[in-house]
């Protein structure tokens, strides 16, 4: 983890993370695990995303994947950009996400080739930016001569981590007693499972260092 | 390897039993009668330092029937300076009983197999608890289960090959309890795989101006002139390889399609997961989150209004009917309570070991077992580069199996993979395979070549495209001086023709003629050796000379195709491989070298008129300007065969 770049003032970093947190709150309001993110290109927010795993029943629909898809659709379908141009654009993007990207998302961010990632709390269970794997550091994979080299990205953690953690806590607390699913108790366990999973994470994230 | 095999890919990289990591411990002889006292005191001093699987005491029989007890006092540091590292309490113990401690090694990690354990005990006794897995198959597969695994893998392989010659990764999610396919998908990182490709291409051709910004104008013109059937084939020839093998490659592909469907993250597993999620929503729409489009507010409202179960069911049934799935309707109603959580209990079959993104996606989606056919040495996350199944912190763990294909099938795919990776030695693949032999052919031997092509076309042998541009370059590099145009094939040749594969391929219903048929065909057509062409055409390339392109408006698909895979021409690799079995490939190889020197002003005239193909000999360096190799597919090859007017 590195400290925020010079060209990025701490105030800006907090401002963007605040936007990511707003996305996470949206997720929370929709009974989703509260993770949210925004993607910036040249100092402008160009995409936002939040968890939609429960809604879609697709556990891969994390905030980061949602936001990447927003950009791909925009650049590809609306702007008609080529792969090369899209890759070029991604390489100038930075992502602000409330929780350390999981292994899947970290890999995806490496594949699309974002420039840097700022995250809130660490993800001790599945983090792909240092916690479990370090997919953000390009040296983590062997690169053969014929293979495009894995791309790393700059990664800064611990930004407004306590806010991110408290969202997880709210998610857990609002959780099941209040969850408006009293008529289908038998169908709830899946969501419980998700809750629990993040609760553990939340509990372990109390000790997150604060950089800002 | 003539049979199918299912190999468990363990949580930890396999370590040879005698190379297990060790730690140093401080041990000492003790008087047997003091054992209880000393152990009790040791437990107070350093109870947990020693790895749990390591036994604290070892009993040794010494000469004269005496028993000697050795006890581990504590973990020793790395340094040899033992006295510095000894905890105070242990030192006191040593002093008070006048022990003479020594440093010895114990195995650091608990044994995962009986073999490991036996080896460990040679150092110091350890305990061994055989793994108590609850996932079927780790302890072995029943014959019935094995067969269904093979069948599904076969299906997956077939999917990967569909799309005429293009090889991509394919994923099939299966509910093993009823042997039902839940979802299946191929890579969609590029628009060209799916059945939608056609429409995308049509869209492209309607908007030629978009190409203008990336191509020279002649290409644009060419593209516009493309006849419809050619343009449909074109995209299939463009993309090379499976997404997971090199996830970062997408950005380097200069695919200038403006088709809207490429997506760098739509690897086969991701698409299959999405499809299974869609199925889930369709079959079990009862959770108040109907429809993909419901936004957050909607789901809050529908949830908080909490309709009664009866009312909800009513809604469900209409939804299901709307979803044009009658089975969905009934299934949804009858088994709402049996709705699976994500892909819990499901298996996924993949041609290649998934990359980190896909492997983690499969964790998230709660897949129970993963079966893959080929390792992914540069990017695989299930043993090759990472090993997610062994990451204890993850909240879900699947079991991973590699399905080893029988020789008959393996040959083809093994070659394909080898071509891609050039890493045979490192991938741990079957070393028993016969070495693939590369044979270069040129149009000089047109009659023979056309027969050959026809052979492949007739028997629908697979045509693999797994070479990266870089690899193409490498392949052709040393051929630079004489390769001019046309097609290069790499064939599988086999020394010993085993008939074992035959029955298998038939019984599996694989769409492939038996080797016997080729032989007959080959003999009839006086092929050099009847057993020469036993298997697989791997790749075909056409040499495109840039500066001559515009003169050939009739073959526009080639030129535009070529632009994305432009590569300076080349250097030898092929000949190395050829030399391995030169005696067998002599005829073709030698002829090819000569013939590659032949050249025309336009490569395309060669294809039109085989009689002309030797007419020109251009300066080798001159013709490389803007020239490049382009992988081609069945359609193009067919075309070439046609234009060569086969007289075989």
Automatic annotation (TrEMBL), chain A:
GO BP term, example: tRNA wobble adenosine to inosine editing
Q: Which CDD domains match?
A: nucleoside_deaminase (cd01285)
> InterPro entries under this entry?
APOBEC/CMP_deaminase_Zn-bd, CMP_dCMP_dom, Cytidine_deaminase-like
Metal-binding as a keyword of this entry, yes or no, is yes
Q: Name one GO molecular function term.
A: zinc ion binding
SUPFAM superfamilies found in the cross-reference section: Cytidine deaminase-like
Keywords for this entry?
Hydrolase, Metal-binding, Zinc
Annotated ranges, domain CMP/dCMP-type deaminase: 11-140
User: What is the protein named?
Assistant: CMP/dCMP-type deaminase domain-containing protein
UniProtKB/TrEMBL annotation, chain B:
UniProt cross-references to Gene3D superfamilies, sorted A to Z: Cytidine Deaminase, domain 2 (3.40.140.10)
User: By its UniProt entry, which InterPro entries does this protein fall under?
Assistant: CMP_dCMP_dom, Cytidine_deaminase-like
SUPFAM superfamilies, A to Z: Cytidine deaminase-like
- The organism's superkingdom is given as Eukaryota
One GO term of the cellular component aspect? nucleus
Q: Set out the biological process GO terms recorded for this chain's protein.
A: tRNA wobble adenosine to inosine editing
Instruction: List each copy of the CMP/dCMP-type deaminase domain by range.
Output: 260-385
Q: Where is this region: Disordered?
A: 284-328, 499-523, 550-620
Which family is this protein grouped under?
Belongs to the cytidine and deoxycytidylate deaminase family. ADAT3 subfamily.
Record's protein name: CMP/dCMP-type deaminase domain-containing protein
According to its UniProt entry, this protein's organism is: Acer saccharum
